[in-house]
Amino acid sequence: MVIRNKTLILVPLVAAAVLGSVSALAAGRAGFGEGMHYDNRFSHNQYYHDRGYSVPGIPRGAYEIRHGGQSYWYHGGEWYRHDGRFSVVIGAPIGAFVPVLPPYYSTVWWGGVPYYYADDSYYVWDAPANQYQVVDPPAGIESGGTTTTPSSDKVFIYPKNGQSQEQQAQDKYECHRFGVEQSGFDPTLAGGGVSADVAATKRSDYQRAEAACLEGRGYTVR
């Protein structure tokens, strides 16, 4: 009789535990859980763990990033510092390089330059390093940055080889830099950074060099 009572008592406890797990799983699938926040800046609209949130071990599939003599872990757009048996969420270390952008990011244009935004962090493509670098947000981007390509720099490219959005952004930025180097004209600067009497010619030189670079990388340019 005692055994039966103990069994009956255990059943609702087990049921409650199962229901709690199901609820937690449902919350996770919905994108929101304990210790998380919603980032809607620049229409980013993604959930991330709060700074200081800790997880056991090291997130599976995380990249180890060495910077400033320390090891950091980079996963899903979040940054971690390993502390004993746990990894603690931190802000992205300024100056660190990463091989890939976060799986979800917003391209934010400022001064004609694309910045890649995710979880209160900004990245720019660094051609010499062939990686993306974490940078401080330039003054004014928070209020004046736009996710729309500036009309003065707008070039419509159509990938012929199935290039990803990430690859397209990288190629476009590198070809922009190539056009600047070849022509001396930089559309991100006032007046292109050249005197008014040669601006029209230099701009045409820039556009031809940029288009030639993109076409050479497998794009149709309009």
Describe this structure in words.
With 222 residues, the protein is an alpha+beta fold. Among the domains are: 97-144, no CATH class; 151-221, no CATH class. Helix content is 31%, strand content 28%. The chain has 4 helices and 14 strands. The protein has a 5-stranded antiparallel beta sheet, with no helix packed on it. α3 (165-183) packs antiparallel against α4. The radius of gyration is 24 Å and the shape is elongated.
Total count of strands: 14
- Mean of the pLDDT scores? 81
Strand order of the largest sheet: 3-7-6-5-4
Low-confidence stretches: 1-31
Question: With helices defined by DSSP (H or I, 4 residues minimum), what is the helix count?
Answer: 4
Fraction of helical residues:
25-40%
What would the principal axes of the Cα set say about the shape?
elongated
Order of helices and strands: HEEEEEEEEEEEEHEHHE
Distance between the termini: 83 Å
The Rg value, from CA coordinates, equals 24 Å
Briefly note the structural class of the backbone: alpha+beta
Largest sheet: 5 strands, antiparallel
Question: What percentage of amino acids are in beta strands?
Answer: 25-35%
